[in-house]
Amino acid sequence: MSAGVLAALALLALGSATLSAVTGIGGVLLLSGLLVAVPTVAVVPLHGAVQLAAGGSRVLGFRKHIRWDVALPFMAGLLPGSLVGIGAVAWLAAISPSVLKALIAVTILLSLTVRPKTSQTRPAAQALVGGGQSEAATAVTSHRLLFVSVGMLVGVLGIIVGAAGSIVTQALLTAGVVKEEHIATKSTIQATSNLIKVPLFGFALSFDYAEYALPLTVMMVAVVAGTFLGKRLLGMLSTQRFVFLARALLFLVAMQMLVAEAARALDLV
């Protein structure tokens, strides 16, 4: 890998981690950069390894805001979903590498069909402030099955396409988990997902991470720096701007990926 490509990946990792710490979205930007820089079969495992470092740093930086009542049901579905995904990824790659790229963009766009309830944000937290313990418990319980189900879906898609964070974002926004709580909780879920995914690629699919030791190290350092830069910027956003920016970024990234893949397909015709 040339010095120019390495520098570009470092800047992209820094930018994506900063965005992730501000909006909860940014990993897909790094994913799209890796799609250009490395072979398709290496994209998801490398993305997972870098995102493990990024997610771990966000968990550390936002640890006081983690919503464990939301994160734990998500995490319960991750392992079974990941095991299903690891069985499907080799089959999909054997059909066509383009399938992986198309699935990434389609997954993001589908997640945008669910509109967040911004007028009822943080229902459980608001109920607790008002002294309504039973109301808070009801708000969390009503979404628990959703969290477990989405956790399983995230496990599958995280292995196959590496872009499952968009699904988590929409589920958390729908449940009214925003700003610091959103970043902290999503990071906890994704760090757990990547902690499962990274060794699965190494043991089950024999992916050699050592071959990419230098770019991995550089990108990991960059994402940790981006996390703490983004944390300082997050306080400047209102809840409404946070939700709008998160959804706008999801749409733009997905469209860029679809357009790029369509252009590549037309060149082959």
Structure characterization notes:
The protein has helices at 3-23, 27-37, 40-61, 68-95, 97-111, 123-129, 133-160, 165-174, 179-204, 213-234, 239-268. With 269 residues, it is mainly alpha-helical. Mean pLDDT is 80; it is low at 118-134.
Strand content: under 5%
Strand element count: 0
Class from helix and strand fractions: mainly alpha
Mean pLDDT: 80
Radius of gyration: 18 Å
Major beta sheet, specifics? none
| Contiguous uncertain segments of 5+ residues | 118-134
Number of helices: 11
Head-to-tail CA distance between termini: 29 Å
Q: Estimate nothing, just give the exact number of structural domains.
A: 1
Task: Give the helix level as a range of percent.
Answer: over 70%
Order of helices and strands: HHHHHHHHHHH
Shape assignment: globular
Task: Give me some keywords for this one.
mainly alpha, globular, 269 residues
Task: Give a topology summary.
Layout: H1 3-23, H2 27-37, H3 40-61, H4 68-95, H5 97-111, H6 123-129, H7 133-160, H8 165-174, H9 179-204, H10 213-234, H11 239-268
Helix pairs in contact: 1-2, 1-10, 2-3, 3-9, 3-10, 4-5, 4-7, 4-9, 5-11, 6-7, 7-8, 7-9, 8-9, 8-11
